[in-house]
Amino acid sequence: MKLYFIVNPAAKNGRCKKVWKRLEKVLRQKHISYEVFFTEKQGDGKRIARQIIESTSETAAIIAIGGDGTVHEIANGVFPFKHGIVGYIPAGTGNDFSRGIRIPNHPRKALEHILLLLKKHCFSTYDIGQFAGPHVQEGMFVNNLGCGFDAQISRKVNRSKLKSLFNRLSLGKFVYVFYLVKELIFYKPAKVVLQIDGEKHLFERTWLVTISNHPYYGGGMKIAPSAKSDDGLFHIIVVDQISRLKILLLFVTVFWGGHTKMKEVKVFAGKHIHIHTSSLLPLHADGENIGSGSVSVYVQANALSVIREKAN
Ligand SMILES: Nc1ncnc2c1ncn2[C@@H]1O[C@H](COP(=O)(O)OP(=O)(O)OP(=O)(O)O)[C@@H](O)[C@H]1O
């Protein structure tokens, strides 16, 4: 098996570059043979992963080093090729994928863990979500897809200069909290028709719809506490008819999953989800902007091989 690393040096406001330097030393000390590639711009992660996978018929372990945006791109490059195995070393702002696959949050510990798992041939299959829509860039997600308020927040965070300031202060995840409070004042809830495995649900004043593959979102919030990434199902969270003040409470309780007890929060599970919106609401997949408006999502069970402990 060949080992590849794809590093986003810009992740976490450039800190990922330093992380790689430290990991490189560990790899050298352990005499591990590997190839490394660096992304230079958006889209490179997918392009490089696809080039690797198309250049070999041997099993290729491709390790993403960066944030959730990096692993999102690399997984999109590897899927649907079965000889590619995706690994992840968290070195970005949010790093929810590492929580989802239970990889240590510390990059060096994550590397040690991955090397051990590779040695033991410890991989397991992982569900992914394919999505498409009239105003959507097609693709798949590994963590979650969101429509509405949360997508608006992640769009603002990604475009924000404050992200680098917060990262410099080691307060990366609080940038989400900052924009949450800001958007809370201006966001207009909208009408949404949700179709889950053929069953229709109408919501009049929807703040957000999140389709989750595992519990974590936005830097450790437990948005879908009982979602599992190997059960062929997504958990769908809808927040509807809620006051602006109570949204704040929701985003506090979401850190331990307590929000699901609120009457304004509906939880569903399903394999094929269609979100129909009356206006062009923003959409994100794994925190990356994918377009806006209506979207169809299908679970592809066990479609991606991931380096992680077997039991989830
Ligand atoms: N060299 C680069 N310079 C600028 N942007 C890059 C580069 N390489 C990749 N990108 C883009 O950076 C974006 C953010 O990447 P990523 O999510 O990995 O980091 P992060 O924002 O620090 O972490 P998180 O997603 O966990 O908040 C992605 O859209 C990715 O395509």
Automatic annotation (TrEMBL):
Q: Which residues form a coiled coil?
A: none
- UniProt keyword terms in alphabetical order: ATP-binding, Kinase, Lipid biosynthesis, Lipid metabolism, Nucleotide-binding, Phospholipid biosynthesis, Phospholipid metabolism, Transferase
Biological process terms in GO annotation: phospholipid biosynthetic process
Cross-referenced Pfam families, in alphabetical order? DAGK_cat (PF00781), YegS_C (PF19279)
- A molecular-function term among this protein's GO annotations: kinase activity
Q: Which domain of life is it from?
A: Bacteria
Keyword Ribonucleoprotein among UniProt keywords: no
The Swiss-Prot or TrEMBL record describes its family as follows: Belongs to the diacylglycerol/lipid kinase family.
Requisite cofactors: Mg(2+)
Q: Does the keyword Lipid metabolism apply?
A: yes
Q: What is this protein called?
A: Diacylglycerol kinase
Describe the location of the DAGKc domain by residue ranges: 1-135
Q: Which PANTHER family match?
A: SPHINGOSINE KINASE (PTHR12358), SPHINGOSINE KINASE RELATED PROTEIN (PTHR12358:SF54)
What organism does the record attribute this protein to? Answer: Parageobacillus galactosidasius
